[in-house]
Design goal:
about 675 residues; alpha+beta; Immunoglobulin-like; 3 domains; seven-stranded mixed beta sheet
Length: about 675
């Protein structure tokens, strides 16, 4: 096969690989599993907060932080959500396939390199791995990069020119080998493999010039320099030592080896997170070709190009075979590049045996085998795996479906999101709430949603005209008071799930009727300079500064309270434009026009997300002191900016300012236990 035809086919293979990995990227898997959520938490709560370290403590075990640092950078570029978190894995997988082609071409010719890359493009596990937010997504890339750097720097493949060795090749080799330690504990095995192979080259390849030996020494120095922070951190925190974390609870070595071989060719990984049950990683014919490649490497171990793969397999396989819950596809990620390269070696040898007459037949056979694997992967991954109930549960499908629904609809349909934590800093010591998970999985960071604490507030976007409400969990349902629940009861659930619901609402007429009643039943009065008895009732609406208008109140049928109780004050407001982002509503209980006996300053809606014509309901609960004096009191309300404590004025008669608060209605307070 000519190089031009090989390159053309390699481009097609990369496009195929990209298609398999990008297709349904945001919805397959539908959400993130617990391990992925832990990685995202570590990235957000440590890396993005500036806490950069070599090791992190994750559930009492050490975790290298390189992947999470790169994930943090990727999230800055592409945002969060299933797309933003997964695109790093997609790029790593596609780049790995390109490097597999480059390395395979050097080791076994154009046919070997092309079909090694093609096999990796259609292998189900690699496609699924390219969609997961896990550290192991970088393992195939780092392994392939190191092997390619070795092949370029050292006399490995037949046409290597010993007189053209460049410093940059060895510098890249040293940097990559040192970097492998920061990716995963198995990186330590990769470092050992490199050192053993360099020793093999020094002892078997003759002659090596003094210049080449000095370059090898330079690469080793680079490894030491890059790895020095890792070594120091290991000495300071020996409990995070990678050597203790490479191998898991594997039981019998012999059984683990047999189970791993069976997983490759016969029964696969039983973990639903990683595989369709009973599906092997490779079909039996592909597996036989891989074994042929292994045999060729053993037979021709004196040739550096075969010794490179053999050394990698010997040192990387133990961390895959002796992993927890073996057979474990996740642990096998580190040897996946070696396996597909062996496929290229075996296939190249097989086609050579066909001779000139059977050459075309061999190529057709190879293309047919890859076509079968492509359809097999499509059926297993895109049709069957994602439909399994266990997969839906493991990847938190209910929360993810809400996030996906909001990605599709929040831009066109005004959305009210019941989220009490909109103004509260995240507590990193507790798991993410359903609300936080939904927002984390959304791919539209700028979706125009209204955040509201539905236990004390509600929003009617655009005056109640066609909107949806997200209730993310049963806990939120339980906290919703009757005044808000009555409004929600008028809606229609369009997405109902065990954790909560999305409710479609159209309340323009009902809201207009309710607010129309308040113009006659909810009068207020303005500040006067004379006695309270001179106040003249004024019906709503009453306009305040900051583009906000008071629309009325629901007076409590019980206007008598005992000291120590809570006084609920329910008011409605309309947004007339951009409101201050630090807007607060103050509600005072006054013993006289200037003396405050009890008060509460709050707002249950994120003011920065309100838009013109939005109407919102505010429920303010004012606690009364136990020793509060019995008597008659007045309720007054107003608005102010929290950052400056500046009260916003009340406007009447075409802009005339009349104070900075209004009076609602009187209440009577009785002494406690009276």
């Amino acid at each position: 096969m000519s190089s031009r035809r090989s390159y053309t086919l390699a481009v097609i293979v990369l496009l195929l690989a990209a298609g398999f990995r990008i297709w349904q990227l945001t919805t397959l898997p539908v959400g993130l599993n617990n391990q992925e959520m832990a990685n995202v938490d570590l990235m957000r709560d440590s890396i993005q907060q500036g806490n950069i370290r070599v090791f992190y403590d994750v559930e009492g075990q050490g975790q290298e932080g390189f992947y999470h640092s790169v994930l943090a950078l990727s999230s800055l570029l592409f945002g969060t959500g299933t797309f933003g978190f997964r695109i790093l894995s997609v790029f790593a997988s596609i780049l790995t396939i390109a490097l597999i082609y480059t390395l395979g071409t050097r080791l076994s010719g154009h046919i070997g390199g092309l079909f090694a890359a093609a096999l990796m493009s259609v292998t189900m596990w690699d496609i699924l791995l390219a969609r997961l937010v896990v550290v192991e997504t970088l393992l195939p890339l780092i392994v392939t990069s190191v092997l390619l750097a070795l092949a370029r720097a050292l006399p490995v493949y037949p046409h290597h020119r010993t007189d053209n060795t460049r410093t940059v090749d060895f510098a890249i080799l040293g940097a990559l080998v040192g970097l492998a330690l920061y990716v995963h504990p198995s990186g330590l095995m990769l470092v050992l493999a490199v050192m053993v192979f360099i020793t093999y080259i020094v002892l078997t390849v003759r002659p090596l010039s003094i210049r080449q030996i000095s370059y090898i020494g330079f690469a080793i120095v680079m490894v030491v320099i890059v790895a020095m922070p890792y070594v120091i951190s290991t000495i300071r925190a020996p409990e995070y030592n990678a050597g203790r974390r490479i191998f898991g609870d594997y039981g019998s070595i012999t059984i683990s080896m047999l189970e791993t071989t069976a997983a490759l060719l016969l029964k696969g990984d039983s973990n639903i997170l990683h595989n369709l049950p009973s599906r092997p990683m490779f079909d039996i014919i592909t597996g036989m070709i891989v074994l042929l490649g292994v045999m060729m490497s053993i037979i021709n171990w004196r040739q550096p190009r075969y010794a490179l793969l053999l050394t990698a397999a010997i040192f990387l396989a133990p961390s895959a075979v002796l992993a927890d819950s073996s057979p474990n596809f996740m642990a096998m990620s580190i040897v996946l590049p070696v396996l597909v390269l062996y496929f290229g070696v075996g296939l190249s040898c097989l086609i050579e045996q066909f001779g000139q007459r059977g050459y075309r037949f061999g190529l057709l056979f190879a293309f047919g085998l890859l076509l079968f694997n492509g359809f097999w992967t499509w059926d297993s991954l895109f049709q069957r795996w994602q439909q399994l109930e266990d997969v839906q549960i493991a990847y938190n499908s209910e929360v993810a479906q809400v996030a996906h629904h909001l990605d599709l609809t929040a831009g066109d349909t005004p959305t009210v999101f019941c989220y009490s934590g909109w103004n509260t800093p995240r507590n990193r010591d507790v798991p993410l709430s359903p609300s936080e998970e939904i927002l984390l999985l959304m791919n539209r960071d700028n979706a125009p949603m209204r955040f509201v604490d539905c236990s004390t507030g509600f929003v009617f976007p655009d005056g109640g005209l066609n909107f949806q409400v997200v209730i993310p969990s049963p806990d939120v349902y339980e906290q919703i008071p009757p005044d808000i629940a009555d409004w929600l009861a008028l809606g229609t659930p369009i997405l109902d799930f065990s954790e909560g619901a999305v409710v479609e609402m159209a309340l323009q007429a009902e809201l207009a009727d309710a607010l129309g009643v308040y113009t006659t039943t909810s009068p207020a009065s303005l500040v006067t300079e004379s006695d309270v008895s001179d106040r003249i009732p004024i019906p709503p609406p009453i306009r305040f500064g900051g583009n906000i208008t008071w629309l009325g109140y629901e007076s409590d049928p019980i206007e008598v309270y005992e000291a120590g109780e809570q006084v609920p004050v329910i008011t409605y407001w309309r947004v007339e434009g951009v409101v201050p982002s630090d807007l607060l509503i103050f509600t005072h209980i006054l013993s006289d026009p200037v003396t405050t006996a009890a008060n509460r300053d709050t707002i249950s809606i994120d003011p920065s997300r309100l838009e013109e014509r939005d109407v919102f309901l505010q429920i303010t609960l004012i606690p009364l002191l136990e020793n509060m004096l019995a008597g008659d009191y007045d309720l007054s309300i107003g608005v102010y900016q929290d950052s400056s404590d500046t009260r916003l004025p009340v406007f009447v008669n075409e802009g005339q300012v009349r104070g900075d608060r209004i009076f609602l209605y009187p209440i009577t307070i009785l002494a406690a236990n009276q």
